[in-house]
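Task 17 of the worksheet. Students: predict the tertiary structure of the chain below and write it out as structure tokens. Keep your answer in the requested format; marks are given for formatting as well as content.
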Amino acid sequence: METKERITPCTCVSHKEGGRLQIEVQLPGVDKKDISLNMRSDSFCVSGKKDNTEYAGCFGLSHEVESKKAEAKYENGILKIFAPIKDWEQKVDVTIQ
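Model answer:
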């Protein structure tokens, strides 16, 4: 029986204009049809398989997002996920003393 190597993929999360999170997940050599992505309001799980390697991980988000409005694109081994931040416009400025 062949054993698959399991790797947690590298991720990068950044804020974009308009109150959106952009998440980049490195899945080198994985075919798009072999990727699974599940979004929640406060986290996401991703997995992808290539030969004897399985990339898999679940990650918490710094902001609550509108998961039903999330979009994802895969190109050149990078999965890009875009998700609007929930209640982004409802900010409160805090006075620093």
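Marker's comment: The mean pLDDT is 93. Strands lie at 5-7, 11-16, 20-26, 35-39, 43-50, 53-60, 71-75, 78-84.
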